[in-house]
Amino acid sequence: MIDINFDSVFFDKVFPVLISIGMILWIYCIWFLNKYDKNTNRLLMLLILNFYYVPFYLFRIKRIRKENRIKAISEEIYDSDFIELSRNSIIDTIGLWTSKEKQLENQESESDFSKLQELIQQWVDFYRIDKKIIDEAFNDSEKELLKTFDNSVSICIEKFGDDFPKLNEFQKTNDWKVLNQLAIEIKKDIE
Predict the structure, then answer these.
(1) Cα-to-chain-centroid distance, residue 176
(2) Residue 175 covered by a domain
(3) pLDDT (tens digit, 0 to 9) for every residue of the chain, 191 residues total?
(4) Same-domain pairing of 79 and 157
(5) What is the span of the domain harbouring residue 6?
(6) Domain total of the chain
(7) What is the pTM of this model?
(8) Distance between CA atoms of residues 179 and 15, nearest Å
(9) Integer Cα distance of 76 and 95 in angstroms
């Protein structure tokens, strides 16, 4: 008699509660799949295997949330620190273009590239990164000046191709004067 009473309590009260919880979890899994996990074929598994697949998919949800949390943290670090680092690198490179003396000091170190090529490559490496970073790091007037400077550098690159002159010779040309004036103007505007 006790077993029959226990069975009726289980099927009358406990089982519907468990089914309701399972149904809620199943609906949550389908919602999560449609929002965050669209590129997988898990929907088929959730529809065919219903409640049987829910525990496995809940484990997947936990893993996806952890990955998203890590991605968000890394993007925050990337955004704040990398933007500041990029801005400082560009400003330092502009500082090199403003002064003959700084350029000549750097020329004394040994390198496979000509110093002019190295200066240009340094500019290209720091400035021609993700446009989003440049937009975040500089205001509109600074971006316009940097774009003008970049266009002038591009003209020099096209003009010289792979045959860059020595830095001493380049400093005597009109191209260097234009780049130097632009760099001085940018330096004044930024500081």
Answers:
(1) 33
(2) yes
(3) 455 565 677 777 888 888 888 888 888 878 888 787 776 777 777 777 777 778 888 888 888 888 888 777 766 666 677 788 888 888 888 888 887 777 666 666 555 457 778 888 888 888 887 777 788 788 888 888 888 888 888 888 888 877 878 877 888 888 888 888 888 888 888 77
(4) yes
(5) 2-52
(6) 2
(7) 0.57
(8) 79
(9) 29
d(CA 185, CA 180): 9
Using CA atoms, how far residue 16 sits from 8, 22, 48, 156, 183, in Å, is 12, 10, 21, 77, 75
Let me know: does 61 contact 32? Beta carbons within 8 Å: yes
- Dihedral of CA atoms 28, 30, 31, 37 in degrees, nearest 10, equals 120
- DSSP helix, strand, coil percent of the chain (3-state; round to 5): 85, 0, 15
Placement of tokens 């000549």 in the chain: 104
Dihedral-angle region of residue 139 (phi above 0 means left; psi in -120 to 50 means alpha; beta otherwise): beta
Looking at the structure, do residues 46 and 90 belong to the same domain, yes or no?
Answer: no
Measured in whole angstroms, the distance separating CA 139 from the mean position of its chain's CA atoms is 19
- What are the Cα distances from residue 114, in Å, to 47, 87, 93, 118? 65, 25, 16, 6
